[in-house]
Amino acid sequence: MRGRLWEVWIMQSVAGLLCVLLGRVNSLWTSIVVMWIFSIFVQAASGLIFGIVVRSDGGNDAKWWNCRCGGDTAFVVFRQ
């Protein structure tokens, strides 16, 4: 679990640094490349969060349900 938290922290930190870099670039093509790399790190952080949330519930694992929205973004729905 600790390794997953470190991975999320690293991915989100790199995404934050890419936001700062995006504000400093001066060309359109460079900004497009930075946004493209930023989106990869945001999607990676999203997937890592999904892996942490499901495992943090302990004994109530049967209540968590994995959904796919459009085939690209994973999210969790809590069933009552």
UniProtKB/TrEMBL annotation:
It is found in: Membrane. It is a multi-pass membrane protein. InterPro entries: NO3_transporter (IPR044772). The keyword Membrane applies. Keywords: Membrane, Transmembrane, Transmembrane helix. It comes from the Eukaryota. The chain crosses the membrane at residues 6-25, 32-54. One of its GO terms (cellular component) is membrane. This is Uncharacterized protein.
